[in-house]
Structures are given as C-alpha cells and as structure tokens.
Design a protein that fits this description.
It contains 8 helices and 12 strands. The protein has 230 residues and is α/β, with parallel strands linked by helices. The strands form 3 sheets. A 5-stranded parallel sheet has the order 2-1-3-4-5, sandwiched between helices. The mean pLDDT is 90.
C-alpha cells in the first residue's frame, strides 16, 4: 500500500502545516477543503488513510464518514476541535478509527497515523511479497514477475492484482473491487473490472481462457485461488 493520505479540512493553514510534516516522513498528501472536493478526489484516486475534520462547510465530517463507510473501509482519523464525549462516541460509531482533538501536536498526529497504518497494512518499510505459480508479486516495489521476468502492468491492473492477492481464496464482489481499486466514488462502469481481469489473465495465466489462479466466481465476482504464499 502506498503511503497516501487525504486531509479534508477547511483550516488551510493547519492542513498545509500538517501536509508538510507528513511529507517529510514519506507520506504523499493531498488536501481538500470540503466534502465536494474530497468526493472528486476519491472518484479518481485511492488513499491509504483519511484525516477528516468535523466542522466543514455544507457537509460535516460525520456525514462524509457515514457516506464513505457505505462504500469503503479506508482508515479514518477524525481531527476536530469538537472534543466532547458524545462527539468522540459519534465518530467511532460512524466508523472512524481514531479521534484526535484540535489543536493537536504534530508529533502525536504522526504517531497515530503511523500506528493506524501499521495496524491496517503492516509495517510499511518491509517488502510485501507474494507468489502464486510462476508469478511473483512485490507489493512494496509494485513489481510483478513471471518466470523471473518483469511483467508490465498498468496502474489499475497492478492495484487490482494486489487487492486480490492480499485477499487470496476470498470471493470478492465486482462492486467491492470497483470501490477499493478505482475509488469509493469512481464513475467508471462495473464492466471495467471484467476488462482489467481479462488483461491480467492474458499477461499472467498460461492459458488465459482457462485461468488457474485468477478465477471467476459466478454470481459474485473474482478470486485469486491456488498457491499464493507470502
């Protein structure tokens, strides 16, 4: 998982300071000042974590979180000047993973971000590698090899493969793959998933028409099956 963070906060000065700090520690940070901008970004991009303010124009952070949780499990940290017990409980009940009161220490924010990223994705500094059949997938390096030779995959082909390989032997709905790989608010058609699966099979399966690993689960979606060792 790439170390990408979306900050949704209308306090531009604080958001930029936080962005600079996180960038120094290797995170790729994008800023949005309101829910509308955040949804636009989420249509075309996936993020490893979202830092979400509550008091936002038009739509509150609570409302944004509620919408996101219908579509995505992306980790969410609420960061807000609203520090009452009821607000914290509401944040957790809606699906938030952590709650950080404003004004916050940048060191504490970094510590909580690192901790949540570790809990969700494992230790980011380590290579995350998988193998199935003749195919090796290095998630950390975003590299795929077959018979020892590097296979060129598009951005979304790799993201789709990475999601399946990390959920091996699980039948994943097409709708879930679309949300998790293309973004919670992607406007691409569901058929896009099938097209990318066909392309992956052509590049990775010995007989694409009779896939051994990248299998269709009829009535559900797709699954990476067979030997897939980490």
């Amino acid at each position: 998982m790439k170390k990408t963070i979306l900050i949704v906060d209308d306090d531009v000065d604080l958001a930029e300071i936080t962005c600079d700090m996180l960038s120094e520690y290797g995170y790729q940070v994008t800023l949005a000042a309101d829910g509308e901008h955040a949804y636009e970004l989420l249509r075309d991009h996936t993020y490893a974590l979202i830092l979400l303010d509550i008091n936002l124009p038009v739509e509150s952070g609570f409302e944004i979180c509620k919408t996101l949780r219908k579509l995505s499990t992306v980790p969410i940290i609420f960061a807000s000047a609203r520090t009452s017990e009821n607000d914290r409980i509401t944040g957790y009940d809606l699906g938030g993973d952590d709650y950080l009161p404003k004004p916050y220490s940048l060191k504490e924010l970094l510590s909580r971000v690192n901790a949540l990223m570790r809990r969700t994705y494992g230790f980011l500094g380590q290579d995350e590698q998988y193998k199935f059949g003749k195919v090796e997938v290095n998630i950390s390096k975003r590299e795929v090899k077959k018979n020892g030779e590097v296979i060129s995959l598009s951005l979304k082909e790799f993201d789709l493969l990475a999601y399946l390989v990390k959920h091996k032997e699980q039948a994943i709905k097409k709708e879930t793959l679309l949300q998790e790989v293309w973004g919670a608010f992607s406007e691409v058609e569901l058929s896009t998933v099938a097209v990318h699966m066909r392309w992956l099979r052509e590049k990775l399966e010995d007989v694409p028409a009779k896939p051994i690993y990248l299998k269709t689960v009829w009535g559900v979606g797709y699954m990476l099956s067979g030997e897939a060792d980490k």
